[in-house]
Structures are given as C-alpha cells and as structure tokens.
Amino acid sequence: MPNLLLLHGALGHNDIFKPYLNTLSQYFTVHTPLFSGHGDQELPADGITIEKYTQELSEYCKTNNLTDVSIFGHSMGGYVALCYAMENPENVNSIITLGTKFDWTEEQALKESKMLNPDVILEKIPQYAQLLESQHGTKWKQLLPAIANLMVDLGKNPPLKNNFSTIKIPVQIMVGDKDNMVTVEESMGVYRSLPNAKLAVIPDTKHPMDKVRPSLFLNLIKDFWNLS
Description:
Layout: E1 3-7, H1 18-24, E2 29-31, H2 50-63, E3 69-74, H3 76-87, E4 92-98, H4 106-114, H5 118-124, H6 126-136, H7 140-156, E5 171-176, H8 184-193, E6 197-202, H9 214-224
Helix pairs in contact: 2-3, 4-7, 5-6
C-alpha cells in the first residue's frame, strides 16, 4: 500500500486525524508522526524552527524507509510538507495542505506570536489551556513561546518564499472561507506560483481541523488522490 503522512499543525496533535483513519487506511499505510515538543515528544533545548521540523520529517521517512509518500498537512504541517518536498522532490508523490499560512512577514509573525502567551490563555481561554495540557502535558507553557519564536523566525526568513516554482509535484492547496489566520488570497497566490496545483476553498469552514466537516474533507482528498 502507498504511504500517507498526516502532519499536524503548531500546537496541534495527531489526535485530530482519528476521525479519518478508518477510511484512509483502506487506501494507504497511514503515518501520524508528532513534531518535537508536541504530545509526548520532548521540547528541544535549542528551540524549534521550520527547518528543524523539516529535518524531523526527513529522519522519520528515512527511519521508516518511506519513499514516494503522499502527505496531508494541516496549518504548519502543510508548510513543513512543502519544505520537505522542495528538498526531497524524488521522495514525495503529492501533497495536500489545509489552512497553511504562507504569507509570513516579520510584522505578521510578531502579531501572531503575541497571542501565544500562556498566562493570557489561562485567563482568557481556560478551555483551550485545558486542551493544550491534555495533549502536551505541563510543558505546553514552554511550547507556546517556542512556537512564538518559530513564527518570528519564519517571518524573518520564510524558506518557501520565491521557491514555490521549484516544487513540481501535484499539490492541492485547501483553505476554509472563514479561516481567520489564512486568507483565500494568499492561498490563491501560492496556488498560482506552484506549477502543478489545484485550489479548494471549503465553504463555511474555520481554521481548526476539527471545524472541517469530515464528509466534505474526505470527498476533496478522495477526488485529488483518485480514491474510489
């Protein structure tokens, strides 16, 4: 069976893919790795960057002898997937991204990163703090500033900038029309920069993976991967 990697986003968890595993396992051998700092994975002492996560994905594929992989990435997972494909074109069959932010600037990154303050989240959105603790343990408070630093680093030096035209594999860019982090316009810009791409705007859909209607999501990915 072909291999499919499902990549979660920043502060996400591979739990979000549970509703899809039964269906996708009929067509693929499914892999759901966790990026460092997430779930039960240690947070590296020297911090995290997109480059580090791309390296982790590369090591995961080498360790598990994965070649010709298809990848689905939610949010940051989609960014890492495209970085990996840029560096290892021979190893990736095709990619779908959902809710991936491409338009990173320093100003944008600083704005986003300021929202990742553990004390503010505890006070203003206690349910979210509980979810983060249940998924990542007590280190969630260290993971937030680490992700904030990753965003700032991404704003200063976005690895994909001006490199989309080098990614020749089939890619489907997907975005929810009510995503408050990612604009339809930036998704369309990347779709137009990729040589072999499709674009899907999902109606009435916000940024979090659990806000996507499973039947709609599955229909879109089945169509892209010609699954019957």
